[in-house]
Amino acid sequence: MTPRVTLAVAARVIAQLRRDHRTVAMLIVVPAVLIALMWWIFLDSPATFDRVGGPLLAVFPAIIMFIVTSVATLRERSTGTLSRLFTLPMGKLDFLLGYALAFALIAVVQAVVVVSISLYALDLDIQGDAWQLGVVAVLDGVLGTALGLFASAFAATEFQAVQMMPAVMIPQLLLCGLFVPRENLPDVLQAVSDVLPLSYAVDAVIGVAQGNGFDSGAGTDTMVVLAFILGALALGAATLKRRTA
């Protein structure tokens, strides 16, 4: 890995995103709109919104980042851009880290917008610090990016890349504790949820929302999310194809 090359890849991706206003709007605006929709649904039951609103700060950014990243990476392969890039002195890890860094910057903006709207416009009730909630939301967005980069290696077309979302993210959505506390799941499903990254992303958000900061349980869950990010990037570098078959 060469830091200069990684930063060059990140700058290239950011330059592309600046010209793609619809994608930027999807990444930044859509999570906030979805959170606002959930607030509207539970307008007459604010306690329910307080219960599900925090976990959704992990779920929505991760899913949206996954979709956009997996499709964007697949497009780089299908158009031959990735093959041309690899004729330069650039490794696979440089490419993936550059993408992750670029989308991490987007995730920062995304987290600031969605957390600010949730706390100050929608009155989401949390006991913890807003900045810690923002940090976790950023990591959750980066988690979706890392999983999208990894999953894109197994898709041959952009349509297949979109299909990876229900295969990879929907099971995590169902088992992450958003609908049923993980400890109340059947034993087999609980064991499966214990190895899914989104479970720890949701646990980290819930921990911060309940006032358990990084020096307690939320810190452990946050470190597990970070480990999943690094693992997904490493696996992505090992499985990345230079072109579609």
From TrEMBL:
The keyword Cell membrane applies. Keywords: Antibiotic resistance, Cell membrane, Membrane, Transmembrane, Transmembrane helix, Transport. Its main location: membrane. Signal peptide: none annotated. It is found in: Cell membrane. The chain crosses the membrane at residues 24-42, 54-74, 95-121, 133-154, 161-180, 222-240. Belongs to the ABC-2 integral membrane protein family. This is Transport permease protein. It comes from Kribbella sancticallisti.
